[in-house]
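Request from the bench team (R.T.):
"We need a structural guess for the complex before ordering more zinc ion. Sequence and SMILES attached. Just send the tokens back."

Command: build protein-zinc ion structure.
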Amino acid sequence: MSIATDSIAARVQAVLNEQRLDLRHVSLDIHSHPETAFEETRACATLCGLLISNGFEVRRDVSGMATAFIADAASGEGGPRVAFVCEYDALRGMGHACGHNLIGTASAAAGIALLRALREAGIQGQVRVVGSPAEEGGGGKIPLVADGVFDDCDAALILHPADRTMSVMWALACTHWRWAFTGRAAHAAGDPDKGLNALDAFVHAYTGIAMWRQRLLDGTRVHGFIAEGGTAPNIIPERTSGEFLTRAREAAYLDEMNVHFRAIFEAAAAATGCSLELVQENTYKDLRSNRVLAERGHLHLEEVGLAPEVSAPWARVGSTDVGDVSYACPTIHPEVAIIHEGVSCHTHEFREAAATEHAHDVMLRGAAALALTGADIIADAAIRDAVRTSFAAEPWRRPEWTGSGV
Ligand SMILES: [Zn+2]
Ligand SMILES: [Zn+2]
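Reply to R.T.: structure attached below.
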């Protein structure tokens, strides 16, 4: 640890200790009022209130999203800028089973603690806390990135609760699709020749995807479901519909896959005489953790007693719109364990864990680690340069994380 960051570590800890109960209240309030994508009104207001009362200037309703916000504050004039990224959306039908109440609170806490510590230590720097809605579907970070919210940031930091503590998270690029086939109803026994079978169209597409898998690269995922499959066995199904996700390790490869995915559905429509409605919704980019930032984050997670592991590349991956942020500026997204290994997020058990005193303790430790990683960036020019060099040198090739140098 550098001398400059050493001098603010105790201050970061002091601020988090001082605000421990307030932060607990914020986290529990969000947890007990789950709001899904783009409807996170209460969570957004709660976090904005917390940041305003801690000296941040807050802009709400940004990038066309009523529940997004940007909170800025500085110690002195100018200087490097670090962004802490909040998420606070719940899952459809399952509340805060991904623990985003902890993410939102941790990132706000890290920003508050770092700002106070910088000011008290007389170190020049800027702190931004970004409120991003709809991580679980909708991709609130995508318009924020498009509007350049991260372009003037030296780093973006965020953590995620999990069942293991990992200094690097891996995440696939991911595209969300909605599909519907429309055919023609007919008596299934009396007049089958008059019908056009929309279920046949989907089965055709589903089989095409199954055969396509053989030539897809390792780590690729294609999965989905059918919501409407017909209405009665004696009617030729007139309409079928559902959703799919396509995922890959590289956003560029996913773009290629998506062309073929569409071709499979179009071929199924042509083969069955049905019409196709296929909507390609948002795409999350793959997550490219910055190697130098990850090493700093790893050290600080150790310092706060969270004993991080180095994850095997591509183990147990999902997707996140933090991927889009990681293409815009150096980013890390470590995971912190709030429950015993083997319990994944998106379960009822994980939702309960996200409200425990233990999870709160882990969240505050994680917030301290994020704040100290941010302090490295702001106070240490050599680290900042190394992060920037790593980001510039590896924009299209992920650094394989081996743990070397830690
Ligand atoms: Zn989730
Ligand atoms: Zn999540």
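Two things stood out. The chain has two domains: 3-171+287-393, 173-284. Residues 395-406 have pLDDT under 50 and may be disordered.
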